[in-house]
Amino acid sequence: MQIISGTETRKKLLEKYKEIISKNNLKISLVIIQVGDNEASNTYIRNKLKYTKEVGIKSKLMKLDESITEEELINIIKKLNRSKTTGVILQSPLPSHIDFTKCARLIKDSKDVDGFSTNNLFGIRDNNEQIIPCTVKGILKLFEEYNIDLVGKNIVVIGRSNIVGRPLADALINRNATVTLCHSKTKNLEEYTKNADIVISAVGRPNLINKDMVKKDFIGIDVGINIVDGKLVGDFNKDVEEKASYLTPVPGGVGPMTVAMIIDNLIILKEKEGR
Ligand code: NAP
Q: What pLDDT, in 10s, does the model give residues 174-183?
C-alpha cells in the first residue's frame, strides 16, 4: 500500500509557487474574514496566514465581532470587492444569524479564492473550470502527483456539500470518471463502495468505511476530519489499509493540500487581473 502524502506534495508545490511569485514579481494580497472566534477556524486561519506569507503573499485577517449583522458583513464584502486585494476568503462557520452561502456568493468571481461563487461552481458543472474549490483541487492535484488515472474509473464520492462533494463529483466527471455520489439517505452504502476503484469520503464520521466495504486494491481518499479521544482521524477505519493500493492519511493527506490550493487559486486570480 502506498501512502498519498499531502504534506510532501504541499512542500514541493510551495517551493514552486514561491519561485513563480518571486520570478514574476507578483504582488498578491489576501484578506481572510472571520466572524467570531471558532477554535477550529483559528487553527485553519493560522495555517492559511502562515503558508501564504511563506511564499510571499501579503495576507491579513479581518476578525469581526460575533454580534455583527448580516447586512454589515455584506457591506464589508462589497467594500473588499472594490478594493485592490487579490483575493477574499470568508471563513466558515459563521454565527447562526448569518447565511454563509449567501455571503460567500457575494465575493466577486475575480476575488473568489475559495471558488464558492455561483459562476465558479457552475463553471465546473459546465466543464468550463475557472476557480475550483481548494479541497476539490487539492484532491485532483494528488491524483496528478501520484499518476492515478481517472478515465473510466468507478469512483464513489460520499458527501454532497456544495464545497466538497458536489463540485468534486462534477470535476471527476469532467475527467471522464464514472461517478456515484452518496449521502446520508443512501441505502446500503457498501453496495456502492464495494465496487468502487476509488472511494472518496467527505462526511465527517469516524469509521464510516471499513475493510469489508471496499474491494482489494481500491484507492482511498479520506477528506473527513474528526477528533476521537483528542486525536485527529478521518472517515476510514484503519483496517482499510489491508485492502488499499493507495491511501491518504489523516492528518497529512487532503488537509495540507487545501491550504496549498489557496495559493494556487490566488496565483490564477492574479494572472487573470487586467485581462
Ligand atoms: P457537510 O456539509 O456536513 O456534508 C457532509 C455530507 O456527508 C452531507 O452530504 C451528508 O449527507 C453526508 N453524510 C452524513 N452522514 C452520512 C452517512 N452516514 N453516510 C453517508 N453520507 C453521510 O460537510 P463538508 O463541509 O462537506 O465536510 C465533510 C468532511 O470533510 C468534514 O469532516 C470536514 O471537516 C471535512 N473537510 C476537510 C477538509 C480538508 O481540507 N481535509 C476540507 C473541507 C472539509 P446529507 O447531504 O444527506 O446531509
A: 999 999 999 9
Among protein residues, the one with the nearest Cα to ligand 1's atom 22 is: 184
Using a cut of 0.90, tell me whether the model's pTM lies above it.
yes
In the DSSP assignment, the letter for residue 67 is: T
Question: Is the minimum distance from the CB of 158 to ligand 1 under 6 angstroms?
Answer: yes
91 is catalytic: yes
19-25 own/partner pairs: CB under 8 Å, 24+ apart:
20/267, 21/55, 21/56, 21/57, 21/267, 22/56
* Active-site residue flag, 48: yes
- Check if 114 is active-site: yes
**Alpha-carbon span 132 to 87, nearest angstrom:** 14
- Using the mean position of ligand 1's atoms as its centre, give its distance from the Cα of residue 83 in Å: 33
Total domain count, the chain? 2
140 and 78 inside one domain: no
Q: What would the pLDDT profile of 176-218 be if each residue is shown by its tens digit?
A: 999 999 999 999 999 999 999 999 999 999 999 999 999 999 9
Query: What is the tens place of the pLDDT at every residue in 64-75?
Result: 999 999 999 999
- Per the structure, the complete domain to which residue 153 belongs is given by 134-254
